[in-house]
Write a structure and sequence with these properties.
It contains eleven helices and 54 strands. It is of the alpha+beta class and about 800 residues long.
Length: about 800
């Protein structure tokens, strides 16, 4: 086979119909479809068959609103949002906005072409072009000048330059000239992306096998493009509220009394926690769906007792089924014929924790059904969450044969095409099986490996990170990058998994992770304890302060999760979403900063620093600690001793909070605390509530109310919608940013106003012989309270 690159020179036999353009080229075929006014699919195949199956895409083309016109040298598809132009002479594709400005265009002389089995597209690098996305990748926020490979890989203790990693999300966003666009390459084979690495001519993406099947997204903003991508590939289901709390894990807690001791210590020390994990040592000889009877003689009683104390329980499951006659899962799997095979029909075997194993084929509906049925006993025992690990597939030797075959929903393929989707569909099989058994309840499904569309089945954690500042800061960028690719529920192990976590590192890491979607402490086998109290009294108090804040912020955080489930917005948001064309957002000094939802700006900083530079983008920003106001679009210096993470609130924000609880299911006192940060353009925030446990919200059992603030002196909570009775019966309003006591009025009646010396944190003890209380920043705040009727309330000052 010729290994020289051969570009497609022309498109012949053009047929235009409704929303589609079909063409023939030498040795290949073309189909272009307008999926939506802002989304176009470009599909180049070696065979004349465009009904390619996709695990990622869940939508069909929408009714076409536009025109298709063919001229001598081009075909133009024009919609209400964008234009797609195909140059027939040399098959060059250009995406333009409504006004005709170039968003994305093929590089002349290269375009689309073949090099052996590889198929590639070369895109012209635009002046000053930046690139975001690709999900779980190392490197900078701006991918310009870098190249990456998608091939799900067990990369233990990944370093800053490691690639590939555990998951593959071949979606990116390009930014230039005050505009942006998106590209999604829907090919699950090994793919490669080059964003101007080792060249200054083009960006490119290629697949080692299969079709060139990609989508172009036009949009006025990064948020619009993410919304379009998540419309195409799906959005997460609203998770149970308990999955938003603090979660404690290690490799591993055993025997039973150690699990009980850890849980009781959280309650004794008044550090909120919702989830306790069992890693692989809970199993008998690491065999799936078993318990070690010596270490855990009565798992149901253990789980019942943990439930009674407010804890949920999550267990790990790996895909490898031990080859052992008499072991039920193995015997039944053989009988049902659900394991992966070589082309000659022999089962594939690989070595992992239990020894030599077979592996279910999760691209087979039969195997997924079988896998799901195996959770029956765990569910009966009360297990609440399920953690899918080692599903890249990870085996000792780390060299899976590409000839292993997969069902692929009846399309039959090899490891070359199925490897990257394996982890997603293990998570899918777990979710579908468990949900059949738990009725109306919600569960938590975690996975390490994934492909685009994973968000429909569970959350992604970033695998076996390292206990270093470098890994902590890289994790911040990974979380925001993964969020851009539709997987809003994500996070990394607090303190790092591999290595010894230093005292200051744990404190800093936890304070950052409190503002990320998935909050879990974890550490490796044979390492020192890494619970919040394991690093001395000072760190224990710091940890309690920040975890307490997480639980007080639950009304805000849960509402952001609901929004994400509806429109696909990330939970932790790179500043590039809202401040896309601000160059300092991409500066490596500030690229780790992110927003939790629309309003809270977090500036991660290494554990060894006590002062740092922070970039505040456009607007006005309150220091979360001392209430001082800063004008945006400037770099400031921020103190950051280990007890203090730089956090800022956008002026005009109303931050909803609740009274502290020790776990999400604990009843609070019914007071909704609204913190109003005066200034800016005001804001509208739709506060959302439901029971946090079941799917009753899908049947209307929720409540929501808009919190409308004008930026000056009027705050309104609108009449509640929905059939759920709010958990909040009383309202307390705190006004930040005023110098004088305001005359506060509630529904037209004068209200009592109190001046408070306020802090969101408790002071940290000095731990010297005199026992003096340490310093904590405070600010002047004015507060009033009232009842919270369902009809709404207006507070003014």
């Amino acid at each position: 086979m010729n290994q020289l690159f051969q570009s497609i020179n022309s498109v012949d036999a053009i047929v235009c119909s409704y929303d589609t353009v079909i063409g023939e080229m030498e040795n290949s075929y073309l189909q272009v479809t307008a999926y939506r006014p802002d989304i176009f699919r470009i599909h180049v195949a070696r065979e004349k068959n465009f009904q390619k199956f996709s695990y990622a895409v869940i939508q069909s083309p929408q009714p076409f609103e536009g025109t298709i016109e063919e001229a001598d040298h081009e075909v133009r598809i024009e919609t209400t949002k964008a234009q797609l132009v195909i140059d027939k002479r040399n098959f060059l594709v250009s995406l333009k906005d409504q006004e005709g400005h170039i968003l994305n265009e093929d590089e002349e002389g290269l375009g689309t072409g073949f090099q052996g089995d590889h198929i590639s597209v070369f895109k012209k690098l635009q002046p000053g072009e930046r690139f975001l996305g690709l999900g779980e990748k190392t490197g900078n926020l701006d991918r310009r000048g870098e190249g990456y490979t998608n091939w799900n890989t067990d990369e233990f203790a990944a370093r800053p330059g490691s690639d590939p990693l555990y998951s593959s999300n071949p979606f990116y966003i390009g930014i230039h000239s005050g505009r942006c666009y998106g590209v999604f390459l829907d090919n699950s084979c090994k793919t490669h992306f080059n964003f101007g690495a080792s060249n200054n001519r083009f960006a490119s993406f290629s697949a080692e096998a299969g079709d060139m099947d990609y989508y172009l997204f036009a949009g006025g903003s990064v948020a619009e493009i993410v919304g379009g991508y998540t419309w195409l590939t799906g959005r997460m289901e609203l998770p149970p509220k308990w999955s938003l709390g603090y979660q404690q894990c290690r490799y591993s807690y055993y025997p039973e009394h150690e699990v009980r001791t850890v849980a009781q210590t959280f309650r004794n020390k008044q550090i909120p926690c919702d989830v306790i994990y069992n890693d692989i040592h809970y199993m008998e000889d690491y065999k799936l769906f078993t318990w070690d009877k010596e270490r855990f003689p009565n798992p149901k009683k253990l789980i019942d007792d943990l439930h009674n104390d407010g804890f949920k329980v999550t267990v790990i499951v790996d895909p490898g089924v031990k080859i052992e006659d008499g072991y039920e899962a193995y015997d039944d799997g053989k009988e049902k014929d659900v394991f992966l095979k070589y082309p000659d029909g022999q089962y594939y075997s690989g070595d992992v924790w239990p020894g030599t194993c077979h592996f279910p084929d999760f691209t087979s509906a039969k195997a997924r059904e079988w896998w799901g049925s195996k959770f029956e006993e765990l569910v009966k025992q009360g297990v609440d969450g399920f953690w899918n690990d080692m599903n890249e597939i990870a085996t000792w030797g780390h060299f899976l044969p590409n000839i292993v075959e997969f069902d692929f929903e009846g399309a039959k393929t090899s490891m070359k095409e199925a490897r990257n989707v394996y982890g997603t569909h293990m998570a899918r099989a777990t979710k579908e099986g468990v949900e059949k058994m738990i009725g109306d309840k919600r569960t938590m499904i975690i996975t390490r490996a994934a492909y685009s569309g994973l968000q429909r089945y569970g959350l992604l954690w970033t695998g076996d990170n390292s206990s270093t500042d470098e890994s902590m800061m890289l994790g911040c960028r990974m979380v925001t990058s993964i969020g851009l690719t539709g997987i809003a529920f994500t996070g990394n192990d607090v303190g790092g998994f591999a290595g010894r976590t230093e005292v200051d590192l744990f404190a800093r890491w936890l304070s950052i992770a409190v503002f990320q979607p998935f909050l879990r402490g974890h550490t490796f086998v044979n390492t020192a304890d890494a619970e919040p109290w394991a690093f001395g009294e000072e760190v224990e108090e710091i940890a309690r302060n920040y975890i307490n804040l997480r639980y007080r912020l639950l009304p805000y955080i849960y509402t952001i999760f609901k929004e994400s489930s509806e429109i696909g917005m990330p939970i932790a948001r790179t500043l590039a979403i809202d401040y896309t064309h601000d160059e300092l957002v991409y500066d490596t000094r500030f690229q780790n900063q992110f927003l939790l939802g629309p309003s809270l700006l977090v500036a991660p900083v290494e554990s060894f620093k006590e002062i740092t530079k922070v970039y505040l983008p456009a607007g006005e920003w309150y220091d979360f600690h001392d209430g001082s106001m800063h004008v945006g679009e400037q770099i400031i210096y921020a103190d950051c001793p280990i007890r203090k993470l730089p956090i800022y609130v956008k002026a005009g924000t109303v931050l909803p909070m609740q009274t502290l609880v020790q776990y999400t299911g604990e009843d609070h006192d019914g007071v909704l605390h609204l913190h109003v940060f005066v200034g800016g353009n005001g804001s509208v925030f739709e506060l959302y509530e439901d029971d946090g446990e079941t799917k009753a919200f899908q049947r209307g059992e929720f409540t929501s109310k808009e919190i409308i603030y004008d930026g000056r002196g009027r705050l309104e909570l609108t009449q509640a919608k929905g059939e759920y009775s709010s958990d909040f019966k009383w309202l307390k309003v705190y006004i930040h940013g005023l110098d004088q006591v305001p005359a506060m009025v509630v529904d037209g009646e004068p209200a009592t106003t109190k001046e408070l010396d306020f802090s969101f944190f408790e002071p940290i003890s000095q731990f010297d012989p005199c026992g003096e209380v340490g310093f904590v920043e405070r600010s002047k705040v004015f507060a009033t309270d009232c009842s919270l009727p369902g009809k709404g309330v207006v507070v003014s000052w």
